[in-house]
Write a structure and sequence with these properties.
The protein has helices spanning 3-30, 35-48, 53-62, 68-84, 88-112, 134-153, 158-178, 184-215. It is an all-alpha fold. It starts with a helix and ends with a helix.
Length: 218
């Protein structure tokens, strides 16, 4: 099996695993008596004991990194940069990842209609449904794809880029839990959903690059 086929097989395998995980979490949430839901409440009760006004203030700022408005602004800046530098394949991949993730997140929220955690510190008022976490979904799609682009442009700095992306994505998801706005399963599902669309965006870039190479006879 050549390198190209191994790459495709790996992509398909990871995508299928993430998809199955997302379906499993979704079904567990719908079945409200599942161990996943019990674990959600157990974890939220633990966080209740470590919430402080200072940390709430800090996480209120951190969570903005996954806010829809902030994500749109950062994505717009990234797209302008990519088009200016003629990295059109990366721009298309980013658009696919973000729009796909946002649309699917909205559809799942509407379909499942899971209420947000109650009885917790009302640090922020949210009017949308809880599952999956839109912040976690957007963080994985945007910052994950940004890491992919930066790793391709600066391969020597790949470990630092990946570590930074993992930290940013992770802390955004945790901020949603700490502020009492989501259950752990919401955030995990958001990461999974964002990861699915991240992979689709990455694959679209690969196909565009391959198509361009073929057209040049390379």
């Amino acid at each position: 099996m050549d390198k190209e086929n191994r790459s495709v097989l790996l992509w398909v395998s990871v995508w299928v695993v993430l998809f199955v995980c997302l379906i499993f979490i979704m079904m567990a949430v719908i079945t409200t008596q599942s161990f996943v839901v019990a674990g959600d409440w157990w974890f939220e009760n633990i966080l209740l004991n470590i919430r402080t006004p200072l940390l709430i203030h800090i996480f209120n700022w951190i969570t903005l990194l996954g806010n829809a408005g902030v994500v749109m602004v950062l994505a717009a800046i990234a797209l302008v940069f990519l088009y200016t530098k003629r990295y059109k394949a990366y721009a298309v991949g980013l658009i696919i990842a973000l729009i796909g993730a946002a649309a699917t997140d909205y559809a799942m929220k509407t379909l499942i209609e899971r209420a947000r955690p109650n009885g917790l510190i009302p640090s922020i008022i949210e009017t949308t449904f809880s599952f999956p976490s839109g912040h976690a979904t957007a963080a994985m799609a945007l910052y994950g794809f940004a890491a992919y682009i930066l790793c391709a442009l600066f391969p020597a700095r790949k470990p630092f880029i990946v570590a930074t992306a993992v930290l940013v994505i992770g802390i955004i998801g945790f901020s949603r839990l700490y502020l009492g706005l989501h259950f752990p399963s919401d955030v995990i599902a958001g990461y999974t959903l964002g990861g699915l669309w991240l992979l689709i965006g990455v694959e679209s870039v690969r196909r565009m690059h391959n198509g361009l190479a073929d057209s040049r006879g390379e």
